[in-house]
Amino acid sequence: MVPRTALATLLRLARGFPIVALTGPRQSGKTTLARVAFPGKPYVTLGNADMLAYAESDTRRFLANYPGGAIIDEAQRCPVLFSYLQGWVDDRQRMGDFILTGPQQFGMLSKITQSLAGRVGLVQLLPLSLSELADSGMAPASIDSALWQGAYPALYDRALAPGDWIPNYLATYVERDVRQLLAVRELSLFQRFLKMCAARTGQLLNLSSLAADCGITHVTARQWLTVLEASYIVHLLPPYYRNFGKRLVKTPKLYFIDTGLAAWLLGIREGAAISSHAMRGALFEALVVGEFVKQRLNAGQPAQLYFWRDNVGHEVDLLFESGGKLQAVEIKSGMTFASDWLDATRRWQGYAGDEALAPWIVYGGDRSFETGDCRVFSWRALMESPAP
Q1: 49, 277, 292, 343: least CB-packed within 10 angstroms?
Q2: What is the percent of the chain where pLDDT is above 70?
Q3: Same-domain status, 98 and 233
């Protein structure tokens, strides 16, 4: 197993909450992390039909089997469990009593907020970060290989090629889950929707155009996208609304969290094809945005990442607050630094004034340096702990 940065967060929350919930996309390593973090706790999965029936039919007795607490996997399958856990942990008053794992798209978070508010510490576990891979001696050799392989743990824990694992993951988890939730009648339409989303990674979300290209209604497109976001397949990066004297775009940007999934859906079947592919820049942008998201979620913090764009197209790729000021990040996939990359950051500084920190550029080259008041980071800096 690749050691996970979120382990420290999981243990910290277990010292202050009676229940810790671990959610994230399927196959992101939730169960493995929970069992590593709490090796002394018994493990039970409600994915087992007999165990689920037991938990549903006699919930008190089910919980009584675990006087020292337990790791309960696929907890969202038994909604009644959450109500019983409320009284159970209130009576026992023990921190780190139960560890719940499960995917968010089946409403795990809504069940927690309804029944267990104030009693649960939440960790959202995404696929591996570049820093986790580097710390384990499995850093990708090149940016193109990082974009092609993606970051799901199975591709690093086992002798599996992306071409063998990714299509099976899409078929057995992503497509199955969505069909189960939304009763998708024509799988081919949903498959097309996934591919169209991948083709729009890094772009402003236009639901009407997306729906029209897929031959579905606007309402259906919104429903499907909501499930993909709850499944941690895509991330919608919101715009920063504050007005710096310009009319602002108020539409989010769409990103695939894992570039390996996006590359496969784009028809890229080998890593070498990435270098000349028209979507390489968008995939690189998605990787960098995803790394910033992972860094925050692994620390138990909300993402709180934004982009900024005015109505004439001036844009900052990534924006976040730091120490009461605004940190702007430009993302460039080129391997050779170009001086005109600074134009956008200088324009941004002119808009934001004293509220702007010295801007950053993350690019596809191998050398990090400073130029003027701008810090330029190689993509390899994302492998550092902590990353920029």
Answers
A1: 49
A2: 97
A3: no
